[in-house]
Amino acid sequence: MSNTVNSSDIIETIQPEHGFTLGFDELWKYRELFYYFTWRDIKVKYKQTLLGFMWAVLQPLVMMIIFVFFFSKALKLPTNNIPAPIFYFSGLLLWNLFHSGLSSTGNSMVKSSHIIRKIYFPRLIIPISGILTALFDFFMSLIIFVILLLIYEFTTDIDVNYIKLLLYLPAAVLITVGITFGLGIFLSALNVQYRDFRFIIPFMLQFLLFVTPVIYPISAIDDMVWAQYLLALNPMTGAIQLTRAAFTNTPIDVTIMLISITSTIIWIGIGLYTFRKMEKWFADLV
Amino acid sequence: MVCGPCLMKPVIEIQNISKKFSVDLTNRQYKSIRETLTNFFSGKKNEQFELWALKDICLDIYPGESIGVIGSNGSGKSTLLKILSKISPPTKGKIHLRGNVASLIEVGTGFHPELNGHENIFLNGSILGLHKSEIIKKFDEIVEFSGVGKFLQTPLKHYSTGMQLRLAFSVAAHLDPSILLVDEVLAVGDAEFQKKCLNKMMEVTSQDGRTVMFVSHNLEAVQKLCKKTVHIEKGILKNFGETNKVIHEYLHHEKLNPTKDIILDLPEKLNAPQFKSVSIKNHQIKYGEDIFLEIEIIAPENNKAGIEIDLKDQSHFPVSHSSTAPMQGNLLELRSDEINKFEVKMESLNLAAGEYHLYLKLTHPWTEDFHQMPNALRFEVVHSDPYDTGFSFQQSNRGSIHHTLSTTRITSKLPHEG
């Protein structure tokens, strides 16, 4: 361009297609929005509710009690020598993070259409804030989990390895957040184009609950190693196995972990690529 | 291209910007997977036609300029603003920006009804691109301008619409970018608040080095705020220059809507009569004059119908509704063996000066609508001065009909005592 010889002072150029970037610098510039969106969602979620934040705690607690009653007491499903409440709660802790994170990110772009059509900011902030909101609930129920753990340590002979727990749980949360992010932004981008995903997401979550060892231990299918590896493609399998490893002396199955971690990374890649490719058109489509 | 102050480089350099929309003829916003899959396997493509909302727009804007953007509805002016604010990408072309941009397509974006006024100021402010520290610094100013200080702790859902708009505009007015893009946001609130907004906008525009682009239907506001104006029509840059000159040409020399021989190739209903062509004889009238329309109707079968005319103002807000066949009386005879041609006279229109639109409908009143032509014709009231004062009444948010008033003094004497 002849008229832009000295273009060093150009702050920004708007053009049709400019390759693929992750756009991290822009996310950093708008970092305060993460806080405001998350803060808004948490505030609005529990506003005008009688129990408020207690709901974040009550949901997994009640679910855990139901699971203990039906699956452990009635159906006598094995719980890997871990006390049933601890076994189910540890699974539900991560599963709920995945579940609420994925449902809120999956619909987040469509739900925020009014903002998307009116103003620009890096669109990734919307689904990420959805995950941050889910993390808030996670930490609320984590407090209950720790209390439960302490109670059981003093009343039963459960052997909690706290060093393992401090290492494994954050790693498991990282895997869970990773797959929620990758799958979530992938679905949220497709949801803008095809509203079918509004119906697919809840259905998919229901299905995934059965192929995630929340209700049963993965050792239940010890005789079918290929099936274990197939389950490991779902990173929640690895994440939950990792958490529970802190309460048993059985070592972690490295293959399962590697499959789960690889699968997480691939999904983050697919998600980021799809989302970044499509995000520019969101305002025209949504 | 006219070179501005040549020492400075333009803050906004718009180079050959074009924007294409593919409009799906099935007229739905989003696709379903089923459709995509069946189309994929059957090799069928959805019927789409391309619509160029903008075509080859080139424009250089220099620091400190305030530019008005005018054009009729759907001309592409809002699309241009959306491209500039990065909401929607261009199909072709390039824009170089030498400054940070804040855009106001709407006031109150992101306002949440459950949050209170205080919280919404922070939420909205940060969505608009303000940093927390800036919001804190300007907080008192924002609250004072909005005049809702007493209700800061009240959830927004309990605010009246007017209060919400005032709060929204106050946040927006305290943005401090070097390039500000504004779309039609002044058309809110009551007359008094609009005046306050306009003054605030004038203050914002006149700040040193601030570049403003201001899209509006309100020509009066553009005239007040902007030294230069762009006129966009059908996606093409028609005119750019001094505001007064551009507005003058926009109003007086612009070719009005095509009015002859609009033949629709998509009959709405089979065998139903339809307009063949409609035209207006006098595009420019004065207060109290008549408008004459010439209407041709073809009818596949002999039929009876009435013509309904909706008069709308420049923002397409309804002014009046009239029919040639009120209460089914006076129906027009339509014969299949000829082009039925009618002259319709709309009598003594006491309208304020400005642009008006006519929406036509061919109908059998209360039974069946045959053919509709929204926004079919346009005319202009050039002079509205019933009292001969030299001052012409303009169409405004106070209405577009102007009644003449006459007063007669009726004095009665004060009762005498005694």
Describe the protein's architecture and organization.
The complex is a heterodimer of chains A (about 290) and B (about 425). Chain A has about 290 residues and is an all-alpha fold. Chain A has one domain (about 25-285). Chain A is built from 12 helices and 1 strand. In chain A, helix 3 (about 55-75) packs across helix 6 (about 125-155) and helix 10 (about 235-245) crosses helix 11 (about 255-280). The longest helix of chain A has about 30 residues, at about 160-195. The model of chain A is unreliable at about 1-5 (pLDDT under 50). Chain B folds into 2 domains: about 10-250, P-loop containing nucleotide triphosphate hydrolases (Rossmann fold), CATH 3.40.50.300; about 275-385, abc- transporter (atp binding component) like domain (Coagulation Factor XIII, Chain A, domain 1, Distorted Sandwich). In chain B, a hairpin with a 5-residue loop joins strand 13 and strand 14. Chain B is built from 8 helices and 18 strands. In chain B, helix 3 (about 115-125) packs across helix 4, helix 3 packs across helix 5 (about 160-175) and helix 4 (about 130-145) crosses helix 5. In chain B, about 40% of the residues are buried. The interface between A and B is large, with 41 and 48 residues.
In total, the number of strands of chain B is: 18
Structural class of chain B: alpha/beta
Considering DSSP H and I runs of 4 or more, what fraction of the residues of chain B is helical? 10-25%
Distance between the termini of chain A: 35 Å
Beta-strand fraction estimate of chain B: 25-35%
Q: Mean pLDDT of chain A, nearest integer? A: 88
Number of strands of chain A: 1
Number of domains of chain A: 1
The helix-strand sequence of chain A is: EHHHHHHHHHHHH
Largest sheet entry of chain B: 6 strands, mixed
